[in-house]
Protein backbone atom coordinates (compact mmCIF):
# COMPACT_ATOMS: atom_id res chain seq x y z
CA UNK A 1 0.00 0.00 0.00
CA UNK A 2 1.35 3.44 -0.94
CA UNK A 3 0.95 6.56 1.14
CA UNK A 4 -1.80 7.75 -1.18
CA UNK A 5 -3.83 4.52 -1.17
CA UNK A 6 -7.22 4.80 0.53
CA UNK A 7 -7.73 2.92 3.77
CA UNK A 8 -10.78 0.67 3.73
CA UNK A 9 -12.39 -1.59 6.29
CA UNK A 10 -11.10 -4.57 4.28
CA UNK A 11 -7.54 -3.25 4.25
CA UNK A 12 -7.82 -2.83 8.03
CA UNK A 13 -8.46 -6.56 8.23
CA UNK A 14 -12.25 -6.82 8.47
CA UNK A 15 -14.04 -8.82 5.77
CA UNK A 16 -17.72 -7.85 5.85
CA UNK A 17 -18.58 -10.20 3.00
CA UNK A 18 -17.04 -13.15 4.86
CA UNK A 19 -19.19 -12.25 7.84
CA UNK A 20 -22.29 -12.28 5.66
CA UNK A 21 -21.34 -15.71 4.27
CA UNK A 22 -20.88 -17.03 7.79
CA UNK A 23 -24.36 -15.78 8.72
CA UNK A 24 -25.89 -17.59 5.76
CA UNK A 25 -24.10 -20.83 6.67
CA UNK A 26 -25.22 -20.75 10.30
CA UNK A 27 -28.79 -19.60 9.61
CA UNK A 28 -30.33 -23.07 9.27
CA UNK A 29 -28.65 -24.31 12.46
CA UNK A 30 -30.02 -21.42 14.49
CA UNK A 31 -33.54 -21.59 13.07
CA UNK A 32 -33.67 -25.30 13.94
CA UNK A 33 -33.65 -24.33 17.65
CA UNK A 34 -36.58 -21.94 17.32
CA UNK A 35 -39.79 -22.87 19.08
CA UNK A 36 -43.14 -21.14 18.43
CA UNK A 37 -42.22 -18.75 21.24
CA UNK A 38 -39.47 -17.15 19.13
CA UNK A 39 -40.95 -14.07 17.45
CA UNK A 40 -39.66 -12.58 14.22
CA UNK A 41 -37.17 -13.83 11.71
CA UNK A 42 -33.48 -14.55 11.91
CA UNK A 43 -31.08 -11.62 11.82
CA UNK A 44 -32.87 -8.90 13.77
CA UNK A 45 -31.07 -6.50 16.06
CA UNK A 46 -32.58 -8.27 19.07
CA UNK A 47 -34.22 -11.64 19.61
CA UNK A 48 -37.85 -11.64 20.73
CA UNK A 49 -39.39 -14.40 22.85
CA UNK A 50 -43.08 -14.78 23.70
CA UNK A 51 -43.21 -15.14 27.49
CA UNK A 52 -46.98 -15.74 27.70
CA UNK A 53 -46.41 -19.29 28.97
CA UNK A 54 -44.84 -17.89 32.12
CA UNK A 55 -48.34 -16.87 33.21
CA UNK A 56 -48.99 -20.51 34.13
CA UNK A 57 -46.64 -20.06 37.07
CA UNK A 58 -47.96 -18.24 40.17
CA UNK A 59 -44.77 -16.22 40.61
CA UNK A 60 -42.29 -16.72 37.76
CA UNK A 61 -38.71 -15.71 38.42
CA UNK A 62 -36.19 -15.24 35.60
CA UNK A 63 -32.80 -16.93 36.00
CA UNK A 64 -29.79 -15.89 33.94
CA UNK A 65 -26.22 -17.07 33.50
CA UNK A 66 -23.24 -16.29 31.27
CA UNK A 67 -19.99 -18.15 30.67
CA UNK A 68 -17.39 -19.24 28.15
CA UNK A 69 -15.35 -22.40 27.63
CA UNK A 70 -11.91 -21.16 28.65
CA UNK A 71 -8.74 -22.33 26.98
CA UNK A 72 -10.32 -25.49 25.61
CA UNK A 73 -10.76 -23.41 22.44
CA UNK A 74 -6.97 -23.56 21.96
CA UNK A 75 -7.21 -27.35 21.52
CA UNK A 76 -10.14 -27.00 19.11
CA UNK A 77 -8.06 -24.56 17.08
CA UNK A 78 -4.99 -26.81 17.12
CA UNK A 79 -7.10 -29.80 16.01
CA UNK A 80 -9.11 -27.73 13.52
CA UNK A 81 -12.27 -29.26 14.98
CA UNK A 82 -14.87 -26.64 15.83
CA UNK A 83 -18.29 -28.29 15.93
CA UNK A 84 -17.99 -29.66 19.49
CA UNK A 85 -16.99 -26.54 21.38
CA UNK A 86 -20.59 -25.33 21.20
CA UNK A 87 -21.73 -28.20 23.41
CA UNK A 88 -19.27 -27.02 26.03
CA UNK A 89 -20.63 -23.48 25.86
CA UNK A 90 -24.26 -24.51 26.22
CA UNK A 91 -23.42 -26.90 29.04
CA UNK A 92 -21.51 -24.28 30.99
CA UNK A 93 -24.30 -21.73 30.68
CA UNK A 94 -27.57 -23.67 30.67
CA UNK A 95 -26.72 -26.18 33.39
CA UNK A 96 -25.82 -23.34 35.74
CA UNK A 97 -29.45 -22.20 35.39
CA UNK A 98 -30.71 -25.70 36.13
CA UNK A 99 -28.97 -25.57 39.54
CA UNK A 100 -31.72 -23.19 40.69
CA UNK A 101 -34.40 -25.50 39.29
CA UNK A 102 -34.99 -23.18 36.34
CA UNK A 103 -36.01 -24.30 32.86
CA UNK A 104 -33.91 -22.62 30.14
CA UNK A 105 -35.86 -20.57 27.62
CA UNK A 106 -33.41 -18.89 25.25
CA UNK A 107 -29.73 -18.17 24.70
CA UNK A 108 -27.47 -15.81 22.78
CA UNK A 109 -23.83 -16.36 21.80
CA UNK A 110 -20.79 -14.22 21.08
CA UNK A 111 -17.82 -15.26 18.93
CA UNK A 112 -14.73 -13.06 18.70
CA UNK A 113 -12.14 -14.02 16.09
CA UNK A 114 -9.06 -12.68 14.39
CA UNK A 115 -10.45 -13.43 10.94
CA UNK A 116 -13.89 -14.62 9.93
CA UNK A 117 -13.60 -17.96 8.16
CA UNK A 118 -17.25 -18.74 7.32
CA UNK A 119 -17.17 -22.52 7.57
CA UNK A 120 -15.31 -22.41 10.90
CA UNK A 121 -17.79 -19.95 12.40
CA UNK A 122 -20.71 -21.98 11.08
CA UNK A 123 -19.17 -25.10 12.63
CA UNK A 124 -18.99 -23.45 16.04
CA UNK A 125 -22.58 -22.27 15.80
CA UNK A 126 -23.79 -25.68 14.60
CA UNK A 127 -22.50 -27.19 17.84
CA UNK A 128 -24.18 -24.50 19.91
CA UNK A 129 -27.44 -25.05 18.04
CA UNK A 130 -27.39 -28.84 18.46
CA UNK A 131 -26.82 -28.51 22.19
CA UNK A 132 -29.56 -25.87 22.44
CA UNK A 133 -31.94 -28.27 20.70
CA UNK A 134 -31.03 -31.07 23.13
CA UNK A 135 -31.78 -28.83 26.12
CA UNK A 136 -34.92 -27.21 24.71
CA UNK A 137 -33.25 -23.81 24.55
CA UNK A 138 -33.96 -21.43 21.68
CA UNK A 139 -30.87 -19.76 20.18
CA UNK A 140 -32.42 -16.36 19.51
CA UNK A 141 -29.38 -14.35 18.45
CA UNK A 142 -25.68 -13.76 18.66
CA UNK A 143 -22.72 -11.78 17.42
CA UNK A 144 -19.61 -12.64 15.45
CA UNK A 145 -16.91 -9.99 15.79
CA UNK A 146 -13.73 -9.80 13.74
CA UNK A 147 -10.78 -8.39 15.73
CA UNK A 148 -7.70 -8.23 13.49
CA UNK A 149 -4.56 -7.29 15.36
CA UNK A 150 -6.07 -8.37 18.66
CA UNK A 151 -6.49 -12.06 17.81
CA UNK A 152 -4.52 -14.15 15.33
CA UNK A 153 -6.24 -15.22 12.12
CA UNK A 154 -6.87 -18.74 13.46
CA UNK A 155 -7.82 -17.63 16.97
CA UNK A 156 -11.28 -17.17 18.43
CA UNK A 157 -13.12 -17.17 21.72
CA UNK A 158 -16.75 -17.94 22.48
CA UNK A 159 -19.16 -16.86 25.20
CA UNK A 160 -22.87 -17.09 25.77
CA UNK A 161 -25.73 -16.06 28.01
CA UNK A 162 -29.02 -17.79 28.71
CA UNK A 163 -32.28 -16.99 30.47
CA UNK A 164 -34.62 -19.44 32.16
CA UNK A 165 -37.64 -19.43 34.46
CA UNK A 166 -38.56 -21.01 37.77
CA UNK A 167 -41.51 -20.43 40.06
CA UNK A 168 -40.66 -18.83 43.39
CA UNK A 169 -41.99 -21.84 45.29
CA UNK A 170 -39.79 -24.21 43.28
CA UNK A 171 -36.40 -22.49 43.58
CA UNK A 172 -33.74 -24.95 44.67
CA UNK A 173 -30.84 -24.01 46.91
CA UNK A 174 -29.12 -24.12 50.30
CA UNK A 175 -32.22 -23.15 52.28
CA UNK A 176 -33.80 -26.51 51.35
CA UNK A 177 -30.85 -28.71 52.41
CA UNK A 178 -31.23 -30.64 55.66
CA UNK A 179 -29.02 -32.84 57.79
CA UNK A 180 -29.60 -36.44 56.75
CA UNK A 181 -29.90 -35.66 53.03
CA UNK A 182 -27.84 -37.72 50.61
CA UNK A 183 -25.46 -36.60 47.86
CA UNK A 184 -25.89 -38.10 44.39
CA UNK A 185 -23.13 -37.84 41.81
CA UNK A 186 -23.70 -37.81 38.04
CA UNK A 187 -20.89 -38.93 35.78
CA UNK A 188 -19.06 -36.44 33.60
CA UNK A 189 -18.16 -37.16 29.98
CA UNK A 190 -14.55 -36.16 30.62
CA UNK A 191 -12.80 -32.93 31.52
CA UNK A 192 -15.72 -30.76 30.32
CA UNK A 193 -14.54 -27.12 30.09
CA UNK A 194 -12.50 -26.35 33.19
CA UNK A 195 -8.86 -26.88 34.05
CA UNK A 196 -7.52 -26.76 30.51
CA UNK A 197 -4.72 -24.38 31.44
CA UNK A 198 -3.39 -27.17 33.67
CA UNK A 199 -4.02 -29.84 31.03
CA UNK A 200 -2.32 -27.86 28.27
CA UNK A 201 0.71 -27.24 30.51
CA UNK A 202 0.96 -30.98 31.25
CA UNK A 203 0.76 -31.84 27.55
CA UNK A 204 3.28 -29.18 26.59
CA UNK A 205 5.81 -30.19 29.26
CA UNK A 206 5.49 -33.86 28.24
CA UNK A 207 6.01 -33.00 24.58
CA UNK A 208 2.88 -34.86 23.53
CA UNK A 209 1.16 -33.98 20.25
CA UNK A 210 -2.64 -33.80 20.11
CA UNK A 211 -2.42 -36.35 17.27
CA UNK A 212 -0.77 -38.88 19.59
CA UNK A 213 -2.68 -42.16 19.89
CA UNK A 214 -3.22 -42.96 23.57
CA UNK A 215 -4.06 -46.64 24.24
CA UNK A 216 -5.96 -45.83 27.44
CA UNK A 217 -8.29 -43.58 25.45
CA UNK A 218 -8.65 -45.69 22.34
CA UNK A 219 -8.25 -42.53 20.27
CA UNK A 220 -5.94 -39.54 19.95
CA UNK A 221 -5.13 -37.21 22.81
CA UNK A 222 -6.81 -34.30 21.03
CA UNK A 223 -10.00 -36.25 20.42
CA UNK A 224 -10.18 -37.19 24.09
CA UNK A 225 -9.57 -33.63 25.26
CA UNK A 226 -12.29 -32.31 22.93
CA UNK A 227 -14.94 -34.71 24.25
CA UNK A 228 -18.00 -32.42 24.62
CA UNK A 229 -19.42 -31.46 27.98
CA UNK A 230 -22.29 -33.69 29.07
CA UNK A 231 -25.63 -31.88 29.17
CA UNK A 232 -27.58 -32.49 32.39
CA UNK A 233 -30.50 -30.15 31.71
CA UNK A 234 -33.23 -32.59 30.71
CA UNK A 235 -32.62 -35.40 33.24
CA UNK A 236 -32.24 -32.94 36.12
CA UNK A 237 -35.44 -31.04 35.29
CA UNK A 238 -37.33 -34.31 34.81
CA UNK A 239 -36.22 -35.43 38.27
CA UNK A 240 -37.39 -32.14 39.80
CA UNK A 241 -40.84 -32.48 38.25
CA UNK A 242 -41.14 -36.17 39.10
CA UNK A 243 -40.19 -35.79 42.77
CA UNK A 244 -41.04 -32.19 43.69
CA UNK A 245 -44.10 -31.64 41.50
CA UNK A 246 -45.25 -29.06 38.97
CA UNK A 247 -45.49 -25.54 40.44
CA UNK A 248 -48.20 -24.68 37.90
CA UNK A 249 -50.45 -27.23 39.60
CA UNK A 250 -49.40 -26.92 43.23
CA UNK A 251 -47.11 -24.87 45.44
CA UNK A 252 -43.84 -26.73 45.98
CA UNK A 253 -43.30 -27.55 49.64
CA UNK A 254 -40.11 -26.34 51.35
CA UNK A 255 -39.25 -29.95 52.23
CA UNK A 256 -39.72 -31.30 48.68
CA UNK A 257 -37.30 -34.23 48.11
CA UNK A 258 -34.97 -32.66 45.53
CA UNK A 259 -33.15 -29.96 47.52
CA UNK A 260 -30.65 -28.66 45.00
CA UNK A 261 -27.98 -29.27 42.39
CA UNK A 262 -24.33 -28.34 42.07
CA UNK A 263 -22.79 -27.95 38.62
CA UNK A 264 -19.16 -29.05 38.90
CA UNK A 265 -17.21 -26.42 36.97
CA UNK A 266 -14.14 -24.36 37.88
CA UNK A 267 -12.76 -25.16 41.32
CA UNK A 268 -13.55 -28.86 41.36
CA UNK A 269 -16.25 -30.95 42.96
CA UNK A 270 -15.88 -30.04 46.65
CA UNK A 271 -15.75 -26.27 46.18
CA UNK A 272 -18.82 -26.26 43.96
CA UNK A 273 -20.80 -28.52 46.26
CA UNK A 274 -19.96 -26.30 49.22
CA UNK A 275 -21.65 -23.37 47.41
CA UNK A 276 -25.09 -25.02 47.61
CA UNK A 277 -24.91 -26.02 51.28
CA UNK A 278 -26.00 -23.72 54.12
CA UNK A 279 -23.60 -22.57 56.80
CA UNK A 280 -23.19 -25.14 59.55
CA UNK A 281 -23.93 -28.06 57.21
CA UNK A 282 -21.29 -30.43 55.84
CA UNK A 283 -21.37 -33.00 53.06
CA UNK A 284 -19.14 -36.01 53.64
CA UNK A 285 -18.21 -37.45 50.24
CA UNK A 286 -16.74 -40.93 49.95
CA UNK A 287 -14.12 -41.04 47.18
CA UNK A 288 -14.37 -44.85 47.02
CA UNK A 289 -17.84 -44.65 45.44
CA UNK A 290 -16.39 -43.96 42.00
CA UNK A 291 -13.27 -44.34 39.88
CA UNK A 292 -11.60 -41.65 37.81
CA UNK A 293 -12.11 -41.85 34.05
CA UNK A 294 -8.83 -42.64 32.30
CA UNK A 295 -8.21 -39.09 31.10
CA UNK A 296 -7.76 -37.85 34.68
CA UNK A 297 -5.44 -40.70 35.64
CA UNK A 298 -3.30 -40.32 32.53
CA UNK A 299 -3.01 -36.54 32.81
CA UNK A 300 -2.39 -36.64 36.56
CA UNK A 301 0.39 -39.21 36.23
CA UNK A 302 1.91 -37.53 33.19
CA UNK A 303 2.19 -34.22 35.02
CA UNK A 304 2.88 -35.69 38.46
CA UNK A 305 0.06 -33.46 39.69
CA UNK A 306 -0.71 -33.76 43.42
CA UNK A 307 -4.15 -35.25 44.10
CA UNK A 308 -5.23 -32.16 46.04
CA UNK A 309 -4.47 -29.97 43.04
CA UNK A 310 -6.42 -32.27 40.71
CA UNK A 311 -9.39 -32.09 43.09
CA UNK A 312 -9.27 -28.30 43.18
CA UNK A 313 -9.06 -28.02 39.39
CA UNK A 314 -10.87 -30.85 37.59
CA UNK A 315 -14.24 -32.60 37.94
CA UNK A 316 -12.56 -36.05 38.24
CA UNK A 317 -15.57 -37.81 36.76
CA UNK A 318 -18.43 -35.97 38.51
CA UNK A 319 -20.14 -33.32 36.37
CA UNK A 320 -23.33 -32.62 38.32
CA UNK A 321 -24.45 -33.32 41.88
CA UNK A 322 -27.94 -33.59 43.37
CA UNK A 323 -28.77 -33.14 47.05
CA UNK A 324 -31.92 -35.10 47.88
CA UNK A 325 -33.91 -36.36 50.84
CA UNK A 326 -32.63 -39.75 51.96
CA UNK A 327 -36.01 -41.43 51.45
CA UNK A 328 -36.01 -40.41 47.77
CA UNK A 329 -32.34 -41.07 46.94
CA UNK A 330 -32.82 -44.57 45.50
CA UNK A 331 -35.70 -43.35 43.35
CA UNK A 332 -33.71 -40.39 42.04
CA UNK A 333 -30.74 -42.60 41.17
CA UNK A 334 -33.04 -45.04 39.39
CA UNK A 335 -34.73 -42.21 37.49
CA UNK A 336 -31.41 -40.72 36.36
CA UNK A 337 -29.98 -44.08 35.30
CA UNK A 338 -33.14 -44.84 33.32
CA UNK A 339 -32.62 -41.52 31.51
CA UNK A 340 -29.13 -42.64 30.46
CA UNK A 341 -27.25 -40.69 33.12
CA UNK A 342 -24.90 -42.73 35.32
CA UNK A 343 -25.68 -41.74 38.91
CA UNK A 344 -24.84 -43.05 42.38
CA UNK A 345 -25.00 -42.07 46.06
CA UNK A 346 -21.63 -40.59 46.96
CA UNK A 347 -22.14 -39.06 50.38
CA UNK A 348 -24.39 -37.64 53.06
CA UNK A 349 -25.19 -34.35 54.75
CA UNK A 350 -24.80 -33.58 58.44
CA UNK A 351 -24.28 -30.72 60.85
CA UNK A 352 -20.73 -30.13 61.99
CA UNK A 353 -18.51 -28.02 64.19
CA UNK A 354 -14.90 -26.87 63.59
CA UNK A 355 -13.72 -29.62 65.92
CA UNK A 356 -15.22 -32.26 63.63
CA UNK A 357 -12.89 -31.30 60.76
CA UNK A 358 -9.80 -30.37 62.75
CA UNK A 359 -6.79 -31.93 61.09
CA UNK A 360 -8.64 -32.67 57.84
CA UNK A 361 -6.33 -30.30 55.96
CA UNK A 362 -6.92 -30.18 52.20
CA UNK A 363 -9.60 -32.86 52.46
CA UNK A 364 -11.99 -30.23 53.84
CA UNK A 365 -13.34 -27.29 51.81
CA UNK A 366 -15.56 -24.58 53.27
CA UNK A 367 -17.08 -21.79 51.18
CA UNK A 368 -16.01 -20.90 47.66
CA UNK A 369 -16.31 -18.16 45.02
CA UNK A 370 -17.52 -15.56 47.49
CA UNK A 371 -20.21 -17.81 48.97
CA UNK A 372 -19.89 -18.37 52.73
CA UNK A 373 -21.72 -21.69 52.55
CA UNK A 374 -21.30 -25.09 54.07
CA UNK A 375 -18.38 -27.49 54.03
CA UNK A 376 -17.35 -30.62 52.15
CA UNK A 377 -15.17 -33.34 53.66
CA UNK A 378 -13.57 -35.82 51.25
CA UNK A 379 -12.90 -39.26 52.73
CA UNK A 380 -11.54 -42.60 51.54
CA UNK A 381 -9.56 -43.39 48.41
CA UNK A 382 -10.70 -43.39 44.80
CA UNK A 383 -11.33 -46.74 43.17
CA UNK A 384 -8.70 -47.67 40.61
Automatic annotation (TrEMBL):
It is an enzyme of class 6 (ligase). GO terms for biological process: 'de novo' IMP biosynthetic process; adenine biosynthetic process. Keywords: ATP-binding, Cytoplasm, Ligase, Nucleotide-binding, Purine biosynthesis. Its EC number is 6.3.3.1. GO terms for cellular component: cytosol. Residues 178-350 form the PurM-like C-terminal domain. This is Phosphoribosylformylglycinamidine cyclo-ligase. The lineage of its organism: Bacteria, Bacillati, Actinomycetota, Actinomycetes, Micrococcales. The gene is purM.
Amino acid sequence: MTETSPITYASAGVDVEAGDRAVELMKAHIEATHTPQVIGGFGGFAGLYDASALKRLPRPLLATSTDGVGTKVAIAQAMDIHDTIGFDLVGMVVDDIVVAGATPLFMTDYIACGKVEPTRIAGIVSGIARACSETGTALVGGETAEHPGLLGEQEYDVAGAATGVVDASAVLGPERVQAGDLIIGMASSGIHSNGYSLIRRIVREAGWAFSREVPEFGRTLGEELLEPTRLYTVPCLEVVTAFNGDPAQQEIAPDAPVRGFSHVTGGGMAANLARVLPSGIMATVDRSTWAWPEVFSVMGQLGRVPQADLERTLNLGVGMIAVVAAKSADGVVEHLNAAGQTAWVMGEVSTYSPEDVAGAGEDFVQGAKGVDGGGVLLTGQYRR
